[in-house]
Specification:
By secondary structure, this protein is α/β, with parallel strands linked by helices. It contains 18 helices and 15 strands. An eight-stranded mixed β-sheet has the order 10-11-9-12-8-13-14-15, with helices on both faces. It has a five-stranded parallel β-sheet with strand order 4-3-5-6-7, sandwiched between helices. α1 runs parallel beside α6 and α2 crosses α6. The protein is elongated.
Length: 427
């Protein structure tokens, strides 16, 4: 299976394999560095350009030039060298080594250099490393190769692994995205005994403090409005302990000020929270502005919650299509269909809802007013109200899939569709 990739103008580009997606997901974000690439062929320039659009490269500044070594020499005759130079060379091994001496004459000592060559030669590799080249790679290279090599050089291998961030967002207001997010976070912490941080990003109207029966004096607002103070110690002071393994970064849920943020307002908080716990649940309010867009783009996984009606389908389709363009090297969002079977409401079946999205629902959760209402009014999670309920088991399945402990269960096709599928399989 391949994910579709889009170029910067939204046009369909080459496919990204599932193997590349897995390779990318294992990498930490690249720090804020400057990178310049000098290529001789489009087949090398293209994946490097696409790497620059990957979310793990969001902090880095990358520019790609054509012309190889000669273009680099001309450029750096009048300009300082960046943190990293990526240079493609089709020269034979001995010629390449001689040519690189000219590059060394114009490079700052601190500049790292990656060579992409066309000769698979062990002797050449050893000589390049001895000469101070950071890495030698044989073409062709993929987008994932490029990001992985840069990460290998600039990310500390001894650094603690980052926690996984999972963003929950509703296709419309009122579809229960926050409730699903909170319950999934609680289920992860209680079932797997794993440290989980739930961050309520809906500062004016967030409900996490009510759902977890908490009234903390401080929360996420203090972090957002005092970014210069943010570090792991300060963040730990802002967290409210909800259970043994679950902490909450609560929203103030007040209207005493306007909550207008720039696109990077939550980036530092999320980055530090990911270093504090292996699982970070981001409860993203329904909206589309700079910071919600960036939060979704940067998340490791996204869960869209929707109720089965037409406006939700339209909004979900828009979200899925837009996120595929913004996150070309990541798997598609997960879909949770919530409030299914609401009495007297005409609705779209789960199969018909998911078909135009080309997604298999992670779960279809029925409308159960009494269970959800009792849990909300008592400040308890669904699993605390009725651990054996079918909906609680669905929440558990979501938690298992999102933590990589199981895969999405697909229903076996029945009737004519099932027979046609079997006939196709025999061909």
């Amino acid at each position: 299976m391949n994910n579709l990739a889009y170029d910067s103008e939204g046009e369909l580009d080459e496919a990204v394999t599932d193997g590349e997606v897995a390779q990318l997901n294992a990498l930490r974000p690249i720090p804020r560095i400057s990178i310049q690439a000098f290529c001789e062929t489009e087949s090398v320039a293209k994946p490097i350009e696409r790497a620059g659009d990957d979310r793990r490269m969001a902090k880095a500044h990358l520019k790609v030039h054509m012309g190889g070594l000669e273009a680099a020499l001309e450029y750096y005759a009048a300009a300082p060298t960046p943190n990293l130079i990526v240079l493609e060379s089709r020269d034979e091994p001995k010629e390449m080594l001689e040519s690189l001496q000219r590059l060394a004459d114009v490079c700052d000592p601190s500049t790292k250099v990656i060579i992409i060559g066309h000769y698979n030669d062990v002797w050449l590799y050893r000589e390049l490393i001895r000469a101070g080249i950071s890495e030698y790679v044989v073409a062709p290279v993929s987008l994932a190769d490029v990001v992985a090599i840069i990460s290998q050089i600039f990310v500390d291998p001894e650094a603690e692994p980052l926690g996984k961030s999972i963003a929950f967002v509703g296709a419309k207001g009122g579809v229960g995205s926050s409730t699903i997010a909170h319950n999934v976070g609680w289920m992860m912490s209680s079932t797997f005994s794993s440290e989980v941080v739930v961050a309520d990003l809906d500062l004016p109207f967030g409900t996490a403090n009510i759902n977890f029966d908490q009234d903390p004096a401080q929360g996420i607002a203090e972090a957002v409005f005092s970014p210069e103070r943010i570090d792991e110690v300060y963040l730990d002071r802002l967290l409210a302990q909800c259970s043994e393994h679950l902490s909450l970064l609560a929203a103030p849920s007040t209207l005493d000020r306007a909550y207008d943020f720039d696109s990077d307002a939550f980036a530092q908080i999320i980055d530090i929270a990911q270093r504090s716990a292996p699982l970070l649940i981001l409860d993203v309010p329904h909206g589309w502005n700079g910071w919600t867009r960036k939060t979704l783009v940067q998340a490791d996984d996204i869960v869209i919650t929707a109720s089965p009606e037409l406006a939700n389908l339209r909004n979900t389709k828009n979200l899925v299509d837009t996120l595929k363009k913004l996150r070309p090297n990541d798997k598609p969002p997960y879909l949770v269909i919530n409030q299914a079977g609401m009495p007297k409401r005409p609705e779209i079946s789960a199969e018909d809802f998911a078909e135009p999205l080309d997604l298999v629902p992670l779960a279809t959760i029925p409308f159960e007013a009494q269970l959800f209402g009792n849990a909300a009014n008592n400040g308890r999670m669904l699993g605390e109200m009725d651990a054996q309920h079918m909906i609680v088991k669905s929440i558990s399945e979501i938690a298992h899939v999102l933590t990589g402990r199981s895969e999405i269960k697909t229903k076996t096709k029945t009737g004519l569709a099932g027979m046609l599928a079997k006939l196709k399989a025999r061909k």
